[in-house]
Amino acid sequence: MMGMPSLKRNGKMFGGYYGDGLVVKLGRVRVDELIASGRGQAFDPSGAGRPMKDWALVGLPSTDWDALAAEARDRLDGSW
Questions:
Q1: CA distance 74 to 42
Q2: Is residue 8 within 8 Å of residue 14, measured between CB atoms?
Q3: d(CA 17, CA 3)
Q4: Residue 65 has what pLDDT?
Q5: Is the distance from CB of 34 to CB of 56 less than 8 angstroms?
Q6: What is the pLDDT confidence band of residue 78, given thresholds at 50, 70 and 90?
Q7: What's the rounded Cα separation, in Å, for the pair 61 and 39?
Q8: CA-to-CA distance for 74 and 9, rounded, in angstroms?
Q9: What residues pair up with 9 in beta bridges, in sequence order?
Q10: Model confidence over 21-50: pLDDT tens digits?
């Protein structure tokens, strides 16, 4: 999906690998928290200044990737 290796559950994508980073669907509030903390950035796969609002790109180090992926997986029910 989206041209990258994807993380899915029950056919729904909640994350994936993009370049050297992890992309996760966490909802706008959580994405804003990651951006404000400096840990993540808005995910803009087009590079045209149109980021996907519920998605964050989290770079290296990968020490928190498992936790972020689990958080995104657990949010699949839409409870943002």
A1: 20
A2: yes
A3: 10
A4: 97
A5: yes
A6: low
A7: 10
A8: 10
A9: 12
A10: 999 999 999 999 999 999 999 999 999 999
pLDDT band at 79 (very low <50, low <70, confident <90, very high): low
Residues in CB range of 31: below 8 A, 6 or more apart: 40, 42, 53, 54, 55, 56
Cα distances (angstroms) measured from residue 35 to each of 3, 8, 20, 54 = 24, 24, 17, 12
Question: What is the arrangement of strands in the sheet containing 21-25, beginning at the earlier edge strand?
Answer: 6-9, 12-18, 21-25, 52-58, 40-43
DSSP state letter for 78: -
As given in the structure block, the two tokens for residue 75 are: 């949010």
Question: Of 13, 68, 39, whose CA–CA distance to 4 is shortest?
Answer: 13
